[in-house]
Amino acid sequence: MTAVPVIHAKGLTVEFGVRRSVLTGRKAGAVQAVSNVDLTVDRGETLAVVGESGCGKSTLGRALLRSVPIAQGRLEFMGKDITELEGDALRAARHQFQMVFQDPYASLNPKMKIFETLAEPLRVHTTDSAATIRERVMDMMAAAGLAPDFASRYPHEFSGGQRQRVAIARAVILRPDFVVADEPLSALDVSLQLQILTLFRQLKSQFSLTYLFISHDLARVFGFADRIAVMYLGKIVEIGTAREIYAAPAHPYTRALIAAAPSPDPARGTERDALTLRGELPSPANPPKGCRFHTRCPLAMPVCSEVEPQMVGLGGRHAAACHLVTPG
Ligand SMILES: Nc1ncnc2c1ncn2[C@@H]1O[C@H](COP(=O)(O)OP(=O)(O)OP(=O)(O)O)[C@@H](O)[C@H]1O
Ligand code: SF4
Ligand SMILES: [Mg+2]
């Protein structure tokens, strides 16, 4: 028997700015930020979601945590349908999900000492005694690489990297089943990025966590993620293990993202078939017909502007949606 995945989404769609015309009753002005996405996140894995700015990564992450309305599709958490969960039931489920943001300063209360910042979720969601809460907070601080005397300080007294450690500690202290980290490295310089990645890795093994890790930087997640999902204009266009995607990226968009990244491996600089991205990301309010990538794809064929490609399995856990891809 295979284990129940932490997250299972089927046909997930999120729309913003939908208005209904008074005259015709038709929907107008809708942006489908996430469009018909199927996604499974297994217990204990790190699934990275990558893609350019505006492609819907954050919206997908928030939809999986039920913090934006789901327009269509179905969402299961630990095998239970939570698509329609509301009110107290949704609030109760929430402490099993946590989010870490790009800007830790914005996600921490500036008036709260670090001890209070970490103790608050325990007070709200557990019946732990004051002594147990103190112990759990101090243990969590140690696990997050924060010195004990930081407990009585305020967020503004810390550097960006330390603040991100506090934000991560707060997200993890309730031992959530699912953590969405939304570009948690982008506000940090490169050496701090590596330290925070190491912290994510350590906490994952210590607390058996499951991550959805959002990044615009495909190169950064290769060594960190178990699987990678590549998004383009609200859709997942390729998914696979980090190894499958690194060794044999199948979708022209993924190949363009790899070619655009500075490569630590000079042999890859001359990419077997380097593809460059041209033009701007089209507006998600008016996505191109057929393959959404056809307006920028160097390999586009006439069929691409007419017929939407479906996900094709490439063997293993690898799949991509492109008319040039043949089943493996
Ligand atoms: N609350 C909102 N109201 C209206 N439109 C929104 C809202 N949030 C996101 N969008 C739109 O949905 C699309 C996807 O946005 P989203 O923030 O999910 O992308 P992203 O991939 O996270 O981008 P970035 O890398 O810049 O964070 C964009 O066109 C964005 O303008
Ligand atoms: S379906 Fe066509 S346009 Fe889309 S990625 Fe494949 S080749 Fe390019
Ligand atoms: Mg985002």
List the ligand species.
adenosine-5'-triphosphate, iron/sulfur cluster, magnesium ion
Main sheet makeup: 8 strands, mixed
Looking at CATH, which topology would you report? Answer: Rossmann fold
Helix proportion range: 25-40%
Task: Find the structural class using helix and strand composition.
Answer: alpha/beta
Structural domains: how many: 1
Helix-strand blueprint:
Blueprint: E1 7-16, E2 19-20, E3 27-28, E4 31-41, E5 46-50, H1 57-64, E6 72-77, E7 80-81, H2 87-94, E8 97-100, H3 104-107, H4 114-125, H5 130-143, H6 160-172, E9 178-182, H7 190-207, E10 211-215, H8 218-221, E11 227-232, E12 235-241, H9 242-247, H10 252-260, H11 266-269, E13 312-313, E14 319-320
Parallel strand pairs: 5-10, 5-11, 8-9, 9-10
Antiparallel strand pairs: 1-4, 1-6, 2-3, 6-7, 11-12, 12-14, 13-14
Helix pairs in contact: 4-5, 6-7
This protein binds adenosine-5'-triphosphate (ATP), iron/sulfur cluster and magnesium ion.
What's this, in brief?
The chain is an alpha/beta fold. 30% of the residues lie in helices and 21% in strands. A hairpin with a 5-residue loop joins β13 (312-313) and β14.
How would you portray this structure in words?
The longest helix has 18 residues, at 190-207. Strands 8-9-10-5-11-12-14-13 form an eight-stranded mixed beta sheet, with helices on both faces. It has a four-stranded antiparallel beta sheet with strand order 4-1-6-7, covered by helices on one side. The chain contains eleven helices and 14 strands. The chain has a single domain (7-96, 174-320), classed as P-loop containing nucleotide triphosphate hydrolases (Rossmann fold, 3-Layer(aba) Sandwich). The two termini are 25 Å apart. The protein is an alpha/beta fold and 328 residues long. It binds adenosine-5'-triphosphate, iron/sulfur cluster and magnesium ion (MG). Magnesium ion is lined by residues 57-58, 182.
